[in-house]
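Human: I would love a firmer grasp of how sequence relates to backbone shape in proteins. Could you go through the record with me and say what the backbone is doing? Here is the record:
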Amino acid sequence: MRVKVDLKKCTKSGECYYNHPTLFKVDSEGFPVVQFDPLEDEDLEIEAQQASEVCPVEAITLEGD
C-alpha cells in the first residue's frame, strides 16, 4: 500500500502528523511528508487509513492493497 498526499488540496491542518507521527512528519513549509513508501506493516496501514479518514480536505489517498 502507498500513501499519497495531494499538496494542492492540503491546508496544513496537521491532523495527519499530529495524530500519526510515526507515519508522517512535517516539512519546513508545514506540509506532511510520508515516512514509509510503500507501507508493508499492518499497523502503518491502519494508521494510513485513519489519517485519510480524518483529513478535513481529503488530501490523503491510499493506493494498492
User: Anything to note?
Assistant: The CA atoms of residues 22 and 40 lie 14 Å apart. The radius of gyration is 10 Å.
